[in-house]
Design goal:
There is one protein chain. This protein is an alpha+beta fold. It has 15 helices and 19 strands.
Length: 561
């Protein structure tokens, strides 16, 4: 128990040094650490000045590249930012999903060459119900039901079928989405939406945004450092449906459609981003699903634009489309708004496309993120919105820091009064515990929240619990007449099981908090769990190591405690 061979000393020193190196970057600015700032495109003088200052510091930084430079990620309540609670309407998800299978229903009824042999007229969709009228129900009903069952998909990883098939009046077949399928669709859409939201809000993956599910149909978004909730809501309010449609720019046709509200068969009147209207073909040539990447770029006049690249099959299709339609107009339409309507002068190979317009850099970045992230399965309904100012977060940091320092000082005074020099060793290991805790949070990229600071303060008290139990046991053994070395060994051996049981039960509680909690609760659970591990290590290894070195060096006949 009191034997510390050289390899153990090296291992302990390694972990203490590693924790110190991981925690060290929190003492310096990002520019000093050589972290180049991200250009947000903001024209605010304060943002520009902060960007230039960090860039200058990063260029002049001498921080070695092999050393860690990860700082603690501050949560919404410490850094300030935006909190949004959003909900998905399961009925809308079901309606959209039922709408997407209309082509499959039409195709399956056109098998065997009977183009209009089964349906009397085009089917009618009303919300989450699709009604099909049969031409000759006596002969066709069983065959029609069999065909519909063959295209009834299951949802996600579940075995829940999308729709139920009901027959009414022996002529009508109604496809309806049951509640079980709606719930499965909402859960499936929730996961997809969380990924799309992340790709829209943080396309580069450099922000510390938090996106967590709540139930099966709600999503919580926390964006630390974001000061404009309207911008985030605008980005998330767009469905993101992108299509490539051949267009008709005839002034007379457009004017007629605007005056009468009627268009030619197969055409649709849509608004143009730069003003006015344009007629497009209802059936798109390509969709956003054919896009591989999208990013902000600049046009020939050095104005912000959006460039994106099509996948292989779509690139060939786009080349053939532009080759067949030289001199014609095609439109790039996003959520029923024509973003760009260029003329096809020559075939376009390679599948690279550019959208130009009167964009700012921020608008081009947002549009590229929306295009690349893809289409939302349904609209997001914003239920709650909160904005936390950075000033309030700074006050929380200062208050938490003061509380932590006061806690360490008071605990240190108590330990040294109660246990003398040995209590001082416990204070040293307590400081090592805080350093290891901060280093672990920084290295793991965890987000520190206000409850997380509470977890650190709680860890300070818990860290000395083990030392108090051990020291009291050592005191009892020493009163029994044992030497300092044997009393210390007996104290650690007899106290180990009680301390382990207490910390295991606390760790289980922290795990449950992490699994069922969200946001700040998870931050508290993570900090508490890491603090338990580091406190056990420092109490049973670091404090004992300090004490053993003292016994070997001073060789006291009795521990003053």
């Amino acid at each position: 128990m009191l034997n510390f061979p050289r390899w153990k000393v090296v291992l302990i020193s390694f972990w203490l040094l590693l924790g110190t190196l991981l925690a060290l970057p929190n003492l310096f600015s990002e520019g000093f650490l050589g972290i180049e700032p991200v250009d947000t495109g903001s024209q605010d003088p304060r943002d520009v000045a902060a960007y230039e200052q960090q860039l200058a510091e990063a260029e002049a930084s001498w921080w070695p590249g092999f050393l860690p430079n990860n700082k603690l990620n501050l949560g919404l309540d410490l850094q300030g930012g935006v909190y949004l609670l959003m909900a998905i309407d399961p009925t809308e998800v079901a309606t959209n999903r039922l709408n997407t299978i209309q082509a499959d229903v039409r195709d399956v009824f056109r098998q065997r060459g009977d183009r209009e042999g089964i349906m009397r007229q085009p089917f009618v969709q009303s919300g989450d119900r699709l009604t099909i009228e049969l031409n000759e129900p006596e002969r066709q009903l069983d065959d029609a039901v069999r065909r519909l069952r063959s295209i009834n998909p299951t949802i996600g990883q579940t075995q829940t079928e999308l729709f139920d098939i009901n027959v009414s009046d022996d002529r009508f077949i109604q496809l309806s989405v049951p509640n079980s399928a709606k719930n499965a669709l909402a859960a499936d859409a929730q996961g997809k939406m969380m990924e799309i939201i992340r790709r829209r809000i943080d396309p580069d993956g450099v922000s510390e945004i938090s996106i967590t599910p709540q139930g099966d149909a709600r999503i919580i978004l926390e964006a630390p450092g974001e000061a404009d909730p309207k911008r985030i809501k605008d980005i998330l309010s767009q469905a993101g449906r992108l299509t490539f449609n051949m267009a008709n720019t005839s002034d007379s046709a457009i004017r007629s459609a605007m005056e009468t509200g009627r268009t030619l068969r197969g055409e649709q009147l849509v608004e143009q981003m730069e003003g006015g209207f344009i007629l497009i073909n209802r059936v798109p040539e390509l969709t956003g699903a054919d896009i591989v990447t999208a990013n902000r770029c600049f046009d020939e006049a050095n104005r912000p634009a959006v460039c994106f690249r099509l996948n292989g099959a779509a690139a060939n299709k786009f080349y053939n489309l532009t080759a067949r339609n030289r001199g014609e107009i095609f439109s790039i339409v996003l959520d029923d708004v024509s973003m760009s309507a260029p003329r096809i002068n020559e075939p376009i190979p390679g599948g690279s496309v550019q959208i130009t317009g009167q964009f700012t850099i921020e608008e081009a970045d947002d549009l590229a993120a929306i295009i690349e992230a893809g289409e939302l399965p349904a609209r997001l309904n914003f239920l709650e919105e909160r904005t936390v100012g950075p000033g309030l977060g700074q006050e929380s940091i200062e208050a938490g820091s003061r509380a932590s320092i006061i806690g360490i000082i008071l605990v240190g005074i108590f330990m040294m009064i109660a246990y003398g020099l040995i209590g001082g060793f416990a204070v040293g290991s307590l400081i090592a515990n805080i350093v290891l805790l901060l280093g672990a949070l920084s290295g793991l990229g965890a987000t520190l929240t206000l409850p997380g600071i509470a977890g650190i303060i709680l860890t300070i008290g818990m860290a000395v619990d083990a030392n108090v139990i051990v020291f009291e046991r050592v005191r009892e053994e020493q009163r029994s007449g044992r030497s300092p070395a044997t009393a210390l060994q007996a104290g650690y051996e007899h106290a180990f099981s009680a301390i382990l049981d207490a910390n295991v039960t606390t760790f289980i509680a922290a795990s449950i908090l992490y699994l069922i909690g969200s946001g700040p609760v998870k931050g508290f659970a993570v900090t508490l769990a890491i603090g338990i591990v580091t406190s056990v290590f420092t109490a049973f290894v670091v404090t004992r190591w300090f004490t053993v070195m003292y016994l070997r060096t001073a060789r006291p006949k009795r521990l003053a405690m």
